[in-house]
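Task card 7
Instruction: Convert sequence to structure tokens.
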Amino acid sequence: MKAKQANLLKFLQTSKQFIIPIYQRTYSWQESQCQQLLHDIIGISKAEDNAGHFVGSVVYFEQDHHNASEVPELLIIDGQQRVTTLTLLLAALAELVQQYPDVLESTSATKLKNYYLFNAEEEGALRYKLMLTRGDKQSLIDVLEGHPKPPVEVASNVRRNYEYFRKHLTLENARTVYAGLQRLFIVDVALERGVDNPQMIFESMNSTGLALSQADLIRNYVLMGQEPKTQARLYEHYWFPMEQLFGEHYANYFDWFVRDYLTLKTGHIPRIDGVYASYKTFLKDTKVPAVVEERLRDLHRYAGYYVRIVLPEANHEADVRLRRAHQDLLELRADTATPFLLEVYADYEDGHLTAEEHEQVVRLIEAYVFRRVVCGIPTNSLNKTFAALGRLVRKPQYLESLYAAFQLKDSYRRFPTDAEFKREFQDRDLYNLRLRNYILDRLENFGRKERVLVDEYTIEHILPQNENLSKAWRDELGPEWRRIQEERLHTIGNLTLTGYNSRLSDKPFAFKKTVEGGFADSPIRLNAGVAKEAQWTEDAIKRRGQTLATKALKIWVAPALTDAQLTPYREPEAAADGEYKLEQFNFLTGEMGDLFHAFQKRVLNLDATVKQEVKKLYIAFKLDTNFVDVIPQKSRLRLSLNLPFEEIRDPRNLCKDVRGLGRWGNGEAEVGLASPADLDDAMHLVRQAYEWQLEN
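Output:
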């Protein structure tokens, strides 16, 4: 590696061509970065010390030592965003000077172009100092050649940023900008082919530009180590088509797609900033072309499913009912279900379930997530639930096995029953729930072929929100009007949709019902029941709430297999190896027994779902699995905490790392509990293990 400081303009002036390899991301700087760059350049030119300004490094290596051309073709592996942006700025400056030749005294438009934009003596592709990747190549050529913007052009940051510089370069600031450009410096890093490892250097670069995404790192990793022809084929057949699938959503969604893909394939949920490392592990760090191609082919396959699930409108899912189901699920923001949905889509494509069954699966997941939200069940365990769900599906009995899997879940993973859901749906404050528009949309449009666009209407409180209710409303509700308003105001029975919110306002019920556009004159189905009521009383609100809750049971349907149908799916009970009781522990007497029972009460009070199991050597407290085990000892209770040691927040350093020590119990950390005075500190640590089990 040879690294040296270089003036940017002199660096560009030499006869060479910079090529962005196909494995690099497309040009991705936004207007905000261009604005900052222009601001910095103007500031540099006005600095009194005439000091230069460092803009980062440009790392490259020569593509082919045996190239007969006199113009070296250099592959940039770091710095393309800065080089491209500065090229666009120079192109905009050259155009301004072309129109106003006297604006710069020290140079001309021809010199700007021939020094920094073109290799003047060359023809064809070698004529251009910078050659971008497929997605941006033509856009840059059009800009440099002064071609008019095509009538239909794929959205490109190249054209957008060029137009930004054209707009902000003026006769007043042109000299200042050019003076600032002359003070820009880079670190010129030339790699030696066959000696330097581009991938290692690429990963270790501390770029001052836009941070690389996990997808950028993955693409570079799988393509950079391949032969040029293999690179081109893998990029053209798999990676570029994936970029096209995501379109403008690529930058925001692709990392999340790979995370969900890896969750499906490995059963482990990687951190979003650890997707690249997880994918390398998934590839087993191999660069064998056949293995890489097989994995890329599979990734491309699932990318097609992902965009149909997560971007159904943008990618025109062919099945209208399935597209609608995915859109409704998106309203719930049930991202944790996506790995399982990817598996379901693959099973559908492979013929394991029909299109109708596919839609039923999506609706079942929607019902599971929504019922839990309405019933106030914590959602932080859903990622683990969905990551493991595919293992419970028996493909010959696809729907039945999935219904059974949900129906057999208990505790905090349960599928809320009809009774629980109906009670909460009609009595809970749904107006202040984030999903209120989604709820009213599903209620209004269920079974309706001509959809009502709920977003075009306003949510109306039939009984007004105004704390100072009018006399007409107080008389209608009776002496307990304030209690009724407090308890029933935001419940589903009192909520509807209207296009006449300002007209209805706080008016009496009779007016709201009979006025033009009121409840009796409304095309909204939700208003049909309201219009039948003579008065709007507490009983009327409850009646409507019960009616809508009954309808909700038909929309968000729970599985209802019989006991006979469930039997084949129940897990066989583990063979007993003896029944154990607390009395078997000799040390659980006296003060130590009292301490254990105090600890036991605190742990069981964490949640009704916590279970205690007495084992031969310890007492376990668990959700699906143990989160703390207690080993009674003569002078203390030894607690084994089942969570990664590095995850523990332990400011008092009470925990001991017992990884690899062969202790009884499950966990990487242990802490001693010797007296009631230590209970609060112990529970602080136990709660962390409990919450870690919930979330993982």
